[in-house]
Amino acid sequence: MLRLYFFISLMCLVKSDTDETCPSFTRLSFHSAVVGTGLNVKLMLYTRRNWTCAQVINSTVLGNLNVTKKTTFIVHGFRPTGSAPVWMEDLVQGLLYVEDMNVVVVDWNRGATTVIYNHASSKTKKVAIVLKGFIDQMLVQGASLDDIYMIGVSLGAHIAGFVGKMYNGQLGRITGLDPAGPLFNGRPPEDRLDPGDAQFVDVIHSDIDALGYKEPLGNIDFYPNGGLDQPGCPKTILGGLRYFKCDHQRSVYLYLSSLRENCSITAYPCDSYRDYRNGKCVNCGIPQKESCPLLGYYADNWKEYLKQKDPPMTKAFFDTAKEEPYCIYHYFVDIITWNKNIRRGSITIKLSDRAGNITESRINHEPAVFQKYHQVSLLARFNQDLDKVATISLVFSTGSVIGPKYKLRILRMKLRSLAHPERPQLCRYDLVLMENIETVFQPIPCPKLLM
């Protein structure tokens, strides 16, 4: 409610001047990309005083920039068609929504617009030099490096790293959104983003098998869906241009989700995506001391904890839904079976509440092994978080199309929420699942002894 009140207040404070045209991001044509463009960096400032209409600023004219507040620089990447980033306006307004700060859009489209990627990447250090000149003037006016935050997208992530190196890693924070991989993979730290480039560096890797950088580059490196194919993105070239850029851009949209109230994406520090999927990393490695790290704007909540590690670095994994706001809700499904013989297969679990809401999780990334009287704990991921579950259904499958049908005899099934451990855990006893047949039942609260 407070945020809504603030948003309405902002709308009332906006001053419109029909005689003045608002500066906008440089828009170029595909023709410009073919013939190439010379580098020209334009800085556009947004604040809560002018959150919809930018001011063009430079090292001699700081405009509305208040050097006593945080200043966040947004640095885009390669622009092969000359168009403006479709996410830029949402990112600017989202940042101003969560904090009263200066937001500076670094428009280097004249330089980034070219069909030859090498030409754009060769200009990244030059852009960094321009930004250092501007930040130097901010410091003269009383700004602090602690309050400088840089968000770099693709090539922009490495630009942010170059700026950070010029200040010996004293910038407050750098966020790299799928840092560019081509021409940077395997490069030494001085030629790319590095954990030492700021006091805190967080990175989201969403396209490590194509346009993004695979290896860790920050104090905490987030790998949504393992950093590979993102849900909802085209899987084949028939998806057109989205096939090439959707996974790469997903890092930006995941960051945007952290600026909204309806979705806080939790990640789980882990050695590998496989270990995460197998439920081995859900306590964040630090029992009850720290909450798990949050993706995006609030990732720096883990800054002080990571400082205690040697080295101060970790990788974190999580899954997402295919649509905004991308949140996934994690539950454990604990199953104890009493089959005489070992059974291998997958489980599909469906939850529903009395209002008719239904959410489903297919736990089929690899076969689970069910042995007599052994508990198997499966990590289930749901698109919805149902507060009060009325019914549960289970389907067991070996994945075999032909051959005998098997039964899975369940001594006890238990469902427990990771996000809300205070909720009553739900149990069911003595079930027999016929392969590929849905079994629906009403759960009961587990005895407190089992919790």
Question: Could you describe the 3D structure shown?
Answer:
It contains 10 helices and 19 strands. The chain has helices at 2-13, 30-35, 88-98, 109-112, 117-121, 124-140, 155-166, 241-257, 273-277, 303-307, and strands at residues 40-46, 55-57, 71-75, 102-108, 148-153, 173-177, 201-204, 220-224, 268-269, 314-318, 329-337, 343-352, 358-370, 375-382, 391-397, 407-417, 426-434, 439-441, 444-445. It has a 10-stranded mixed β-sheet, with helices on both faces. It has a 5-stranded antiparallel β-sheet with strand order 14-11-16-17-19, with no helix packed on it. It is elongated, with a radius of gyration of 25 Å. It is a peripheral membrane protein. One of its GO terms (biological process) is phosphatidic acid biosynthetic process. Residues 37-326 form the Lipase domain. Keywords: Calcium, Cell membrane, Disulfide bond, Glycoprotein, Hydrolase, Lipid degradation, Lipid metabolism, Membrane, Metal-binding, Secreted, Signal.
Short structural description:
The chain has 451 residues and is of the alpha/beta class. The protein is built from ten helices and 19 strands. α6 packs across α7.
List keywords for this structure.
451 residues, alpha/beta, Rossmann fold, Lipoxygenase-1, 2 domains, 10-stranded mixed sheet, 5-stranded antiparallel sheet, 27% strand, disordered N terminus, AB_hydrolase_fold, lipid degradation
